Amino acid sequence: MSNHSTRSPTVELDGLGVAQGIAIGPAYVTESGSLDVPSYKIATAAIDDEVERFNACVEKSKTQIAKLAGKTKGLPESAAEELGYLLAAHGQMLEGSRLVRGVENRIREQRVNAESAVSQEVGEIANAFAQMEDSYLAERSKDVRDVGQRLLRNLMESPYRALTDLPNGTVVVADELTPADTALLDPQNVAGFVTAVGGAQDHTGILARSLGMPAVVGTPDLLHHVRTGDMVIVDGRTGRVTINPDDKTLARYKGLRTELGRQARKLEHLRNVPANTRDEVRIGLQANIDLANEVEPALAHGAEGIGLFRTEYLFLNRDDIPTEDEQYVHLRNIVDGMKGRTVTVRTLDVGNDKLPYSLGEHLTVSANPAMGLRAIRLSLKVKELLENQLCAILRAGAHGPVRILLPMISTSSEVRQVRQVLKKMATRLRRRKVKIADPMPPVGAMIEIPGAALSADGLARDCEFFSIGTNDLTMYTLAIDRGDEQVAHLYSPLHPAVLRLIQFTTAAALRARIPVNVCGEMAGDERMTAILLGLGIRDLSMASSAVPRVKQRIRNLDINEATRRAQTIMEQTDAGMVAALLDDFNALA
Ligand code: PEP
Ligand code: MG
Questions:
Q1: Burial of 192 (0-12, 13-18, 19+ CB in 10 A)
Q2: Is the backbone of residue 239 left (phi > 0), alpha (psi -120 to 50) or beta?
Q3: pLDDT digits (tens, 9 = 90+) for 227-256
Q4: DSSP-derived pairing of the beta strands 16-19 and 22-29
Q5: CA of 331 to the centre of ligand 1 (A)
Q6: For residue 112, what is the DSSP state?
Q7: What average pLDDT does range 317-332 have in this prediction?
Q8: Ligand 1 centroid to 469 CA: how many Å?
Q9: Which class would CATH give 44-156?
Q10: How far apart are CA 65 and CA 84, in angstroms?
Q11: Candidates 3.90.76.10, 1.10.1660.10, 3.20.20.60, 3.30.420.10; CATH matching 442-589
Q12: Residue 112: is its pLDDT beyond 70?
């Protein structure tokens, strides 16, 4: 063994930078097997309860496996067959098998907790398999470990509970973080994160921006190069990840981090300054929030209201569906916190990358989840979901101004159906003498499906406002999955087709005299501000941390000049040319 140096070699990897800023800290790699399994003795009197807890966990695991097996139906035949066998084998391992009996015996005889018993029993069986000569049987040791992991995660209740309790300054490193996992990250102790898969515009990236947490996603080969404890630098602006940096690199990034902090503080004075252009046109700036604790940062950054509250986060990381009362209390806290400023509440937008297991029974298999039974389609199918949400919003509306925003609208009839339910719920609540919003909250549609944008004239008759969701609008217009790092280079809201849809929608809203804003990620990118204002947009909603930067851009901008540049841009046929013309215009500021 060489002992020239104790330092591991420096590795630099490039992914997609999704949230501004630089994080520097020790890595915590969330790979399977990294669960911190608790181990303790239990009292004799507690044995039956512990066995019962284990049995409940076995039942839960069997249900999960059965659900997963159901989902294989949407896969190509060969993959479905292979996965089907695998899941059947996993299911069998939980049917009164040696594994289940062995764990029970350990709990009873050794008086240890269920997690420890599972961990020991799985280790023993998996090792026995691994030593078998027959390669097929030897391979089964992996299946035993997989089932063991599932049991452990269920016993420990939260899939990534370890993420909630990390030492200060940790950089989380994972193959993938779902939006639900990301919602568990606490900016107080997590400095940033890096993942191997994921696109810049999926909800994991959006959450990182909301949390103000530097992050890089879509970093191939990541897990081969980093181990827990390695020093990692995450540059959320450029997408560069440096593992085990040398002293010079470390010092350079520390300097950059300080400088970025200084620049952000410099913009703080803009908090109470109006977002007026040079020629005194007032632009509305609102915040997108996903979690209730984002209200304070929204106000601190000078947001004038909540332009988008994504209610689906209320449904993530839990087993049951939140009740109407629970949703009401949550919404009321947000409305109270915003002190008279309008809160736009979007009804449930689940599906695709946001899949709450609390809705398991309602979310059926879909071959194309981005186009399946999701968002408003699910709310209209499972009426009690919609009814509960609308009641909660109506009640919260008694405490301050609210608006109701409907996701993934494709036709007017969806809006009309919601209005009928809303009317019914208002009557029901009034009859029960419950205080509700008066007048009724405005109802608006997300314009994020190309067909909705192209029929914006008709939709405007049934809507009191529009909110343009450029994240999905870009995805569906260009047929590019916003969460797939392999095609991320093709994802561009500056594609002329997307810009034309924005222009068409804005013009339709202006003709119908209803408010229109943009709430997709494009709204929070100050490089895009000029084109959006040039196309007639006067209201933007974004991650709160972006508000000061966009405000600064607005204050440097002249509406007539932006409109003229937008006209030139709209004559282009190529996204690259559009970007160049926009960069050129931004450089004049
Ligand atoms: C959008 O699609 O642009 C949007 C704002 O909604 P979400 O990102 O939640 O899909
Ligand atoms: Mg959307």
A1: buried
A2: left
A3: 989 999 999 999 999 999 999 999 999 999
A4: unpaired
A5: 20
A6: B
A7: 91
A8: 5
A9: mainly alpha
A10: 10
A11: 3.20.20.60
A12: yes
| Percent of residues in the chain assigned helix, strand, coil, to nearest 5 | 50, 15, 35
Report whether 165 contacts 23 (CB < 8 A): no
- Ranking 98-107, 352-361, 395-404, 441-450 by mean pLDDT, the lowest is 352-361
Is the CB of residue 470 below 6 angstroms from any atom belonging to ligand 1?
A: yes
The reply to whether domains 3-31+161-247 and 44-156 share a CATH topology is no
Q: With contact defined as beta carbons under 8 Å apart, do 347 and 383 qualify? A: no
State the pLDDT at residue 293: 86
Using the predicted structure, report yes or no on whether residue 159 has a pLDDT greater than 90.
Answer: no
Q: What is the CATH number of domain 305-403+413-437?
A: 3.20.20.60
The 10 Å Cβ neighbour count of residue 449 is: 24
* Helix, strand or coil, per DSSP, at residue 97: coil
Which residue is associated with the tokens 């736009």?
344
Is 172 a residue whose pLDDT tops 90? yes
In angstroms, rounded to a whole number, what is the distance separating the alpha carbons of residues 550 and 271?
Answer: 12
Distance from C-alpha of 222 to C-alpha of 61, rounded to nearest angstrom: 30
Tokens standing for 496? Answer: 């002329």
Instruction: State which ligand 1 atom lies nearest to the alpha carbon of 468.
Output: 3
pLDDT value of residue 144 = 84
**467, 519 contact by CB (below 8 A):** yes
Is the pLDDT reported for residue 486 higher than 90? no
Q: Specify the pTM.
A: 0.77
Would you state the pLDDT for residue 129?
A: 82
> What is the Cα Rg of the chain in Å?
26
Domain boundaries, the chain: 3-31+161-247, 44-156, 305-403+413-437, 442-589
- Reported as a pLDDT band with limits 50, 70 and 90, residue 1 is very low
**Ligand 1: centre distance to CA 407 (Å):** 8
517 in ligand 1 pocket by Cβ < 6 Å?
Answer: no
Q: Do residues 248 and 223 lie in contact, with contact meaning Cβ atoms separated by under 8 Å?
A: no
CA distances 301 to 273, 294, 452, 545, 588, Å, are 11, 11, 32, 7, 26
State the architecture of 3-31+161-247 in CATH terms: 3-Layer(bba) Sandwich (3.50)
Q: What are phi and psi of 450, to 5 degrees?
A: -55, -40
- The response to whether residue 549 sits with its C-beta less than 6 Å from ligand 1 reads no
